[in-house]
Amino acid sequence: xxxxxxxxDQGDGDxxxxxxxxxxxxxxxxTLTGRQRLAAGLWPPRVSRAQLIVALLLFVLGLxxxxxxxxxxxxxxxxxxxxxxxxxxxDELDSRTKRLEDEKQRLxxxxxxxxxxSNQAEExxxxxxxxxxxxxxxxxxxxxxxPGITLTxxxxxxxxESDKVLDTVQELRAAGAxxxxxxxxxxxxxxxxxxxxxxxxxxxxxxxxxxxxxxIGRPQDLEPALNIPGGVVQTLEKEQATATxxxxxxxxxxxxxxxxxxxxxxxxxx
Length: 270
What we know:
Elements: E1 5-8, E2 16-19, H1 34-42, H2 49-74, H3 76-79, H4 83-116, H5 120-139, E3 144-154, H6 162-174, E4 179-182, E5 185-187, E6 193-196, E7 199-202, E8 205-207, E9 211-216, H7 219-227, H8 232-238, E10 242-253
Antiparallel strand pairs: 1-2, 3-9, 3-10, 4-5, 4-9, 6-7, 7-8
Helix pairs in contact: 4-5
């Protein structure tokens, strides 16, 4: 006997009904709601390689933005600075950079000479002698010559005091003076000035007017530094003194100072 029986109703010949045989199991698949289908699609998460790469790139981009924001906040102090301060800072940075570049080139030149010299010991000795002469010029223990200026200060009324002489020396040093001599006294880093009757004391030695400054340096820098408005020349003229500046291609600074041996300081290379 078949599982499905077809019965034809005599009154309605066109209708045909299907009757399930007893004992057939029902459909086992349950019906899911919309929320359940959404949860099933989100968990467990399915991450592809492309999504991982995009997430990593976004993380790196965010980190870079955070660092940039922090760097901008560190420079906030410069934003509030005055224009004169910024110009001064830039000038100091430029000067420092130039000095460092010059020192770098000088050291590189010395290294090249040492590397290429056939007699490295002789080259090292030569550089040592040159360094000793340079230090001797700065210390005033050896004579020096080179281009520079001669500054002559006439003081007929005796109005020039030690502070004006000190200002003049400082202005010359700031303009690049490498060796200075006032009359017969060598001026070095620790030179001091004092007022004396009828003159000025330079390291305890009295010098009288006219005060003759022999200065070695670049004349194009030294002379303008003294003649700037409100500078040394104008200040001395207000004191009823006369200051004249003369350039020269050869200035001789031959006043010497005795070398002093330090009492306590010793070389740290031993």
